[in-house]
Amino acid sequence: MTIRALREEIPYRHIAVEGVFKSGKTKLAGLLAQRLNARVVLDKGDNPYLKDFYDEKEGASFLAQLVFLINRYHQQSRLVQRELFEDWIVCDYMFDKDKVFAYQTLTDDELVVYERIYAILSERVPRPDFVVYLQISVPTLIKRIARDGNLLEKGISEKYLENIVEAFDYFFFNYQATPLLVVKADELDFGREEDVLEILDQVKLVKKSPLFYVPLSRSGGRTIPKG
């Protein structure tokens, strides 16, 4: 299929791919961008306070969260102007996801300050036209960290991983801002072309209501409307 034909079937100029780390979202975002001839925008993982956060140093959670928030704001706010000139954009994150982590790591007092800053910044960033959420289970996340994780990731407690996975699932179960495709991604391998094509085929099916897709290897490829 040509790029022009694919764009006609998937008329979303700003697509966000989301999921917890190790879900495959960055790889999928890059592959979708290639197929759509889009510009790929990747979340910045560098943060000077991240090690202190994992070492549970006092105040490090708040500082690390603010750095991520500001970095994401600067990157996303630039898209407002770029969207006027560029045909297509695929991001491997949503600005909204910053809040998911904040509510898992910050104290009540810190959240009061964070919410005020977030409210100001969030008004100035673009909203994606379409979201793909790659849902993975805690056992899959633990397995991938053991196989591919860095030293910081391998030091994360299982309880924190459980909380993050639960928080992401809760966020997207209640998400209604844009068309949404939720993909059970435990067994997907985006090194296989057929898995990428599966995602594209499902994106074409989504209208206004969210769809939940369990790939062929798990259930016979069931697409489940949310309702």
Question: How would you explain this protein's 3D organization?
Answer:
- The chain has 227 residues and is α/β, with parallel strands linked by helices.
- The chain has 11 helices and 7 strands.
- N-end to C-end Cα span: 32 Å
Mean pLDDT: 89
Number of strands: 7
CATH level-four homologous superfamily name: P-loop containing nucleotide triphosphate hydrolases
Number of H- or I-type helical stretches? 11
Computed Rg: 18 Å
Helix percentage range: 40-55%
User: What is the CATH class designation?
Assistant: Alpha Beta
N-to-C order of helices and strands? HEHEHHEHHEHHHEHEHE
Which helices and strands, and how do they pair?
Layout: H1 3-9, E1 14-18, H2 25-36, E2 39-41, H3 50-54, H4 60-82, E3 89-91, H5 97-105, H6 108-122, E4 130-135, H7 138-148, H8 151-154, H9 158-173, E5 180-184, H10 193-205, E6 211-214, H11 216-219, E7 222-225
Parallel strand pairs: 1-3, 1-4, 2-3, 4-5, 5-6
Antiparallel strand pairs: 6-7
Helix pairs in contact: 4-5, 4-6, 5-9
